[in-house]
Write a structure and sequence with these properties.
By secondary structure, this protein is of the alpha+beta class. The chain has 4 helices and 5 strands. A 5-stranded mixed beta sheet has the order 1-2-5-3-4. A hairpin with a 2-residue loop joins strand 1 and strand 2. Helix 2 runs parallel beside helix 3. It is elongated and about 70 Å long. It starts with a strand and ends in a 30-residue tail after the last helix.
């Protein structure tokens, strides 16, 4: 790999632009160390998952710009973008990542609110009297 590879990952309202280059395993999210950006262990594991799957935690440096959504959506958007970038680096990673469902876009999103309802499906409280 001569230069950096980049890919986009999306989840809910979050969009992550991931830049991957050879390195020592540094992961930076919005100019912060990812463990500081995601203090919850589950979200840190989501970000690391593609690299752990191919057993390359200390071979790549990852720089991410992520915006929109909440912490969970952002972490999962990064997971997808990183998986896509790794496939660009080496096509042999694809079967391992695919087996872990890391290349599948999770299309679930918040259902829109409808008029005449309190939320998307919840009705206003009914009072008989």
């Amino acid at each position: 790999m001569e230069k950096q590879k980049n890919a986009v990952g999306r989840r809910k309202e979050a969009v992550a632009r991931v830049y991957l280059s050879k390195g020592t395993g540094n992961i930076t999210v919005n100019n912060k160390e990812y463990k500081n950006y995601f203090p919850i262990m589950y979200l840190q594991n989501q970000v690391e998952l593609p690299l752990k799957t191919i057993e390359a935690m200390d071979q790549f440096d990852v720089v991410v710009n992520v915006q929109g959504g909440g912490p969970k959506g952002q972490a999962e958007a990064i997971k997808m973008g990183l998986s896509r970038a790794l496939c660009e680096v080496n096509a042999e990673y694809r079967p391992m990542l695919k087996k872990q469902h890391l290349l599948t876009r999770d299309s679930r999103s918040v259902e829109r609110k409808k008029f005449g309802k309190a939320k998307a499906r919840r009705s206003f409280q009914f009072s008989k009297r």
